[in-house]
Amino acid sequence: MALLELRDIHFAYPGHAPVLSGADLTLSAGQRVSVIGPNGAGKSTLMRIMVGLLRPQKGEVIAFGQPRRKEADFYDVRCRMGLLFQDPDDQLFCPTVAEDVAFGPLNLGKSKAEALDIVDTVLARIGIGHLRDRVTHKLSGGEKRMVTLATVLAMEPEVLLLDEPTNALDKENEIRLLEVLQSLPQAMVLISHDPAFRQALAPETLVLENGKLVRE
What we know:
Layout: E1 4-11, E2 20-27, E3 32-36, H1 43-50, E4 58-63, E5 66-68, H2 75-80, E6 81-84, H3 97-107, H4 112-125, H5 141-153, E7 159-163, H6 171-182, E8 187-191, H7 195-201, E9 204-209, E10 212-215
Parallel strand pairs: 3-8, 3-9, 6-7, 7-8
Antiparallel strand pairs: 1-2, 1-4, 4-5, 9-10
């Protein structure tokens, strides 16, 4: 069974020409796919449709074997499919790193003790345990990116959606992020303007052109 299927997805923002005009995508367990295309082609829009933050005007989203149409259909999807936003500041909103990482598990019904255990495990796994009690908004760009990844991994998703994950990272942090992502078992959809990063993490490539996804 595919983890995610997009079938004939059409989408246009009000007053604008369509950005998606029959896009199709199938993602299986362990599969890693890069989506490329010029700015404005609809790559980020496509990711938001995958998790129900936007709804297509036509077409079908099937996640984990179930058609997803209403907002309630996507609650489960957002627990099982983690979206890493292009800008870390869009994803971090708690005073400290530990609180940000614990937020998702607490909302899944974990106790405070269980959530803090997850915090420590995830931070250690990606090598940022030393940031645990830091004030989030005082972190560097690279530190914020790693913390946003921790907030997503704390939910134990089956799929990672990565929207320009190296945005604003220096080379050292980019290498570290790549090492962490390569070590993970999840299926991934990657948007990145960096050809070397795509080749190292998700060499299978789809091009978004004229609103459709085609193999490179």
